[in-house]
Specification:
The complex is a heterotrimer of chains A (about 450), B (about 325) and C (about 290). Chain A is built from 14 helices and seven strands. By secondary structure, chain A is of the alpha+beta class. In chain A, helix 8 links the parallel strand 5 and strand 6. The longest helix of chain A has about 45 residues. Chain A is extended. Chain B folds into two domains: about 70 residues; about 250 residues, MetI-like fold (Orthogonal Bundle), CATH 1.10.3720. A two-stranded antiparallel sheet of chain B has the order 1-2. Chain C is α/β, with parallel strands linked by helices. Helix content of chain C is about 35%, strand content about 25%. In chain C, helix 8 links the parallel strand 8 and strand 9. The longest helix of chain C has 16 residues. In chain C, about 50% of the residues are buried. The chains are: A alpha+beta (about 450), B mainly alpha (about 325), C alpha/beta (about 290). Chains A and B meet through helix 1, helix 2, helix 3, helix 5 and helix 6 of A and helix 2, helix 4, helix 5, helix 6 and helix 7 of B.
Chain lengths: ~450, ~325, ~290
Amino acid sequence: MSGNDSHGDSPLQGQSPDASTTEAVKQQAEPVTNGAPFDASKLVTSRNRITKDIRFRQMCIVTASASVLILVFLLGSLLVSGLPALSWTLLTGYPEPEPENAGLWPALMGTLWVCTMCALITLPLGIGTAILLEEFTPRNKLARNVLSLIQLNITNLAGVPSVVYGIIGLTAFVSMFSLFDDADSTDGPSMEMGAVYFDQFSNVASDPFLNTGDADARERYFLIPVDSRGAPVTVPKTGMLAYENGEAGFATVEILAIDPFTDEVSADADIMSRTIDNTSTPGRISEKQWYYLRLPFGRGVVAGALTLMLVILPVIIISTQEALRAVPATLRAGALGLGATPWQVVWNVTLPSAIPGIMTGAILAMSRAIGETAPILIIAGIVYIRSAPQHLMDDCTVMPLQIYNWIQRPQDEFHEIAAGGIVILLAILLTFNAVAILIRHRMQNKLR
Amino acid sequence: MSSELDSDRRLPQLEQQVQTLFVRDRRSLSWVRIREKGIFLCLIGCGLFSLLITGSIIFVLASETFRFFQFPDVTLSNFFLSTEWNPLLGNTKSFGIWALISGTLMVTAIAMILALPLGLITAVYLSEYAPRRVRSTLKPILEILAGIPTVVYGFFALLTITPFLQWCYSGFNVYNAMSAGIAVGILCFPTVCSLAEDALQAVPSSLRDGAFGLGGTRFDATVKVIIPAALSGIISAFLLAIARAIGETMIVALAAGSRAQVTLNPGDEVQTMTGYMVQIAGGDVSNFGMEYYSMYAVAFTLFVITLTLTMIGNQIRKKYRETYE
Amino acid sequence: MSSTITRPKDPMGPSPRAKHDSKRHTASGHMRTDKPHDELPEKPATAIEMKDLSSWYGSFQALKSISLSVRKNKVTAFIGPSGCGKSTLLRWVNRMNDTIHTAHATGSLHLSDLDVMASTTDVVNLRRKVGIVFQKPNPFPKSIFDNVAFGPRLHMKLRRSELLDIVEWSLRKAAVWDEVKDRLHAPALGLSGGQQQRLCIARTIAVGPEVLLMDEPCSALDPGSTLAIEELMNELRNLYTIVIVTHNMQQASRCSDETAFFFEGKLIEMNDTRSIFTNPQSQRTEDYISGRFG
């Protein structure tokens, strides 16, 4: 809009109504200036104006305190319903169907996994983009246009609703444009890495249909490694090498395989505990390393982290840019003048000075990621997750999603534990916010 | 002066050493240059990644929406002209986007009626009236309000606002547009407030001083000088807040209900575009069916609306900032 | 001083005659031998030579066909009213203007045999040779030691003891050693303005430059610190070619050997300092020096 100093005087006394005032200001100004500057009747109304000023100030205070009241009321009502629901079970339990036993542990761990992953991916990308936009001004016109396009693009990306990012994540990360087979299909994902498959057998003693009545025989489970997820079913044979998943981890054991209906079952408890029914069908299970990778990603931790990355990337870029902009240009000039290359300037001078600002922005962005529900809801759906994630592709839920899940239930008991969950969530977020505000405060004090 | 004596002896000795250092081999620049190029390429990659995001948003939404319109039951005229949204139940499926848009607009309107005036007045107070101490308490409070996850607001809407509304007037449904609208309004309030305050703060203080110098009260200065001067900034704040309200998901998913209908009664259940997307994604609709793809069509509509609003808002904001910088 | 050149006051910009004049000027610059207040043996070598240098910010022309030469191991002062282009000219010598993307220039600028304006010139190497000190002291928010060690660490492979030597030498050379030797690892921002500026000079000479550019180095300092910096310049002229931009005519007359007067982007007059201040050839120069404008 307009910005010349004649605005300052024209609205009040109309000294220069014909000056270069713009349309908008004129419209505002003219109704007020309908009189000579020194009209006596005008002077009387100045008392009116002062009353108006006081009224307006009062109105402002009322509205401003309303915002405080809303916050107090919101937090108060949450605390009233949430505090009684707080319990150790809520923090460390699993989302059982009975509200009194239900807990947030898998969701808490899910949030930890997803947000850590998200931060690891987003921070380098976001800070890199911000450095590119702030610290490298190419002299080439085309490159400058590309940079301003990127800038425009980022400002607008920040306004895209997070639910849309959820949809994108669903297509791009979960199913990867259906380029590969479905991750959850029976054949498994088209590509995977870091998983070992086993066929699991139980010994004869633990087979409920073959109660041998021998109380001495130990119930055991054996794992026989197979090549891949789709390998043919293992037929147990005597002498096969198997693993027993004991308390101390895997231990190799020799097994015997017999058909208990045709062959004689030994009475020896030790032999019994090593015997497998060779007609039994095993269950195929897998052991996945934490770095287990598959394509497509499926509804796992990585897909969630990448989707949240889309949401907070623009936020991080914009806040980092602001932090970089706050570094005085004289410092950059000083380093450049010593013969530092642009990157050396960034690395040695600009970044160290901007770190507190970048951290504040990053923490606030992460707290946004922790609280973000919609995109995760879109990609993960409302699923029942019973355990903390074990590897990067494991199904997971996050705290706000679990809370949403509980709010949605009709029973009041669930609403109570949802309130308890909200209190925990808010406690985490407020800690994040407090840290960010603290860092910023220290930074401002330093600059002063 | 012992130090001076010391200096007299030390300096020539140092001088000699240092001069030999200066003429000695310098660090090879070629490696520095290669590293510089490599890092620059990485940074360019980071920057292009954000373009890639936009590209894939448009690509995904457009292609899947296209697929949606390939279904025989779906027609463009039905989508754009009908007000009946009935994708899940019954024999005659109808995909009239206006039913969802009207629900969205209803919630947004209620939210904005609440958030815009309150946000603007609070911004004016913060920028023009508030003493330093009040400012330094109010700003963090607003930040905290802005940092509360939306699912919390949804909880608040469903379990606090709705019962309160029903207590006031029994005509309110368990799920209603009013309660969702109020919660969205509270959510958008800090956004409006901080953006509008930015706009007011950007007005040079010379304009204020001008108004005061002519005997204006603070009210005169604010209403007749500052607000008109910051008008475009304020408008952009409003547009960005509206975009935020339209895209808001969890509150409406929890509190507004899931019946898509065109209604003017704020006590009625409505479904918004975002609410529908959550319903499809969270429900057990078969993947890759018609309903599934309808989600993309809705997302595309939502994307176009919010993108338009944010682009206009940002453009105004940029212009405005340039004026005073 | 017959060698003095008065630039034609031609508002239309460079004319053929102007070019001719400037050539004559540079040629005569080499031949000048008498330098009354200079005890050192005369070195006719030219450190920086500019020919027809014009520069623009966007469409605004900041420099209009400047031709001059700066002599080696002398202090040359650029004076003139604000906005006359003297800082712009200074910032072309080590291509600091590259950071402003609207800035561009034509003409030639040579640093001994190095073509500064050529696009192939490596600015990093150039800035090693041509150090710059800015108007406002700008130490990095690091320790005093790290500030001085910044440049050497970038450019040289040094052992710890060698680095210490360079830092000590630079700080001694910049006459700030005695004040900081006990707190080398204290933050540089804790120093006073004058100390900070001397630290910046130490930081600049620690890379071993040939030319020192000083962009109004004393304008943000108190008189005491200004005096210290001026004395320092006197000390340093044996080692470096110094170009100083200043608003302060007393300063120019006190510590420079040669002075160039600029006005509205043009070089009006350049001569040895005593002549400029006692016997200016151009009316403009005289007006400026006698304080009638500027």
